[in-house]
Amino acid sequence: MLTNQQAQDLAVQAIERARRTGADAADAVYAADTALDVSVRLGALEDVGRSESAELGLRVFVGKRTASVSSSDLSEDALGALVERAVAMAREAPEDAYAGLAPAERLLHGAPPQLDLDDGGEASPAELREMALAAEDAARAVPGVTNSEGGGASASRSLWALATSHGFAAAYTATGYGCSASVLAGEGGAMQRDYDHHAARHRRLLDDPATIGRRAGERAAARAGAGTLASGAMPVVFEPRVGSSLVGHLIGAIAGPAITRGTSFLQDALGTEVFAPGVTIADDPHRPHGLRSRPFDGEGLPVSPTEFVSAGLLETWLLDSASARQLGLEPTGHASRGINGSPSVSTSNLYMAAGTVPPETLIGEIEHGVYVTELIGMGVNGVTGDYSRGAAGFRIEGGRIAGPVSEFTIAGNLKDMFRALTPANDLVFRYGSNVPTIRIDGMTIAGA
Q1: How far, CA to CA in Å, does 176 sit from each of 35, 155, 170?
Q2: Whether residue 35 is found in the same domain as residue 119
Q3: Rounded to two decimals, what is the model's pTM?
Q4: Residue 282: which of 256, 328, 251 has the closest Cα?
Q5: Domain shared by 238 and 346, yes or no
Q6: Whether 269 and 329 share a structural domain
Q7: What is the number of structural domains in the chain?
């Protein structure tokens, strides 16, 4: 893998060639990745996989015409051909009034923030195998577990560099480690599956594999022999690991491209109350060794902590440069860039702030309801906000979590769900997107 400086220099070289070949402006990204994955099942090694990739993506502008190309062949001759092809394609492309690089005056200047994303380490196949075995062994040791889908462990290092003809050039690396286990409990038609996993930028921050496995086994065993749920309107409580999907639907609805196309159920909601006053949803790209931390966005703009929803009020859209131009606004530093194509928008370490009520209190106030630990399918309409998903979890009876249930559907409209949402006080930063336990009253349940 190249060094940060070598990767940055390669991206700069590509845009300089593009300018000499006739492009009015250009940007280039270089992405490289090495990854090692090990999986086991029933105590035996099942698979060892290693991957390595390196690719350069180039986007050029000729007036308001643009084209993007990419290549994994980084030789001098291939780079020259790539540039010529990109400029020729741009000259034949249709004009786009909103195309262009991020404004030069908005680019990140000076050294990017140091976010401690690379621990400098690596893991051998033997070490990953021991981690995977430890996770699966702990899961299989839980009473009630009857079979296993396996355990896994992984280690990776990635490098990302971006350069633009407006004068920005920077690169950074990140490591990643993961461990998981997935097992089944029960017999025959009553068999249920569950899992646990954890990922971290630094190996020292990864949960103990045996702890991961034990949680997977306990979750599966608790779901064995799941019954059915009666239909009706009732409160729904979302476990944090599935509740994060709700903020994902919010982000999709406030993304600039959805607003410019008129395809968002929150199209006219900016500056209005979309959640209860106790709800704040924010993004923190500067979180040290965060799973989605980044020192700059996909267009070279500086990034900073942002509250999308503050005390229930929708404060901002997520805008890259193109959608900002179309809306007559400024980009917000949320551009995301792949190797191919134009930037889109994305968040970094997204989270819903903790509320003030313990989860036991949220549940204790419910006479009849359901605690959801798994969501199935993607029945969500981003234009209308209509929401309908299959689910599994546990009944709530008399303020207490009761027996497991499965094969039911929860439904509502996201506008109503957001306003009826109450967060608990148990927020933990564990994933790329994090929420506390969430309660939503008045959802429709379709059960047996």
Answers
A1: 9, 6, 20
A2: yes
A3: 0.94
A4: 251
A5: no
A6: yes
A7: 3
User: Measured between alpha carbons, how far is residue 52 from residues 34, 57, 92, 184, 218 in Å?
Assistant: 4, 17, 34, 33, 36
| Tens-place pLDDT, residues 190-244 | 789 999 999 999 999 999 999 999 999 999 999 998 999 999 999 999 999 999 9
- Token look-up 């993607």 returns 378
Claim to verify: residue 204 and residue 347 sit in the same structural domain: no
For the beta sheet containing 313-314, the strands, ordered from the edge strand earlier in sequence to the opposite edge, are 313-314, 306-310, 281-283, 350-352, 433-434
Rounded distance, CA 445 to CA 330, Å? 42
Q: Which two tokens stand for residue 349?
A: 């370490």
CB atoms within 10 A of CB 196: 24
Closest by Cα among 324, 326, 284 to 308:
284
Closest CA to 69 of 18, 8, 128: 18
Whether 93 and 72 map to the same domain: the answer is yes
In whole angstroms, give the CA distance from residue 200 to residue 185: 28
Rg (Cα) of the chain, in Å, rounded?
Answer: 24
- Asked whether residue 103 falls in the same domain as residue 163, the answer is yes
- Read off the pLDDT of residues 117-158 as tens digits, 9 standing for 90 and up: 999 999 999 999 999 999 999 999 999 999 999 999 999 999
Flag whether pLDDT at 170 surpasses 90.
Answer: yes
Mean pLDDT of 351-374: 96
CA distance 23 to 15: 9
Task: Find out whether 198 and 206 touch, Cβ atoms under 8 Å.
Answer: yes
Q: Is the CB of residue 129 less than 8 Å from the CB of residue 38?
A: yes
Q: Which residue has the tokens 């690596």?
A: 122
Q: What is the CATH number of the domain that holds 174?
A: 3.30.2290.10
- Which residue is it, tokens 């921050």? 205
**At what angle are helices 4-21 and 76-92 packed, to 10 degrees?**
50
**Same domain for 182 and 50?**
yes
The secondary element (H helix, E strand) that includes residue 388 is strand 386-397
Virtual torsion, Cα 273, 274, 276, 281, nearest 10 deg: -110
| CA 237 – CA 239 distance, rounded (Å) | 7
Q: Are 433 and 244 a contacting pair, CB within 8 Å?
A: yes
Which residue range(s) make up the domain with 109?
4-221
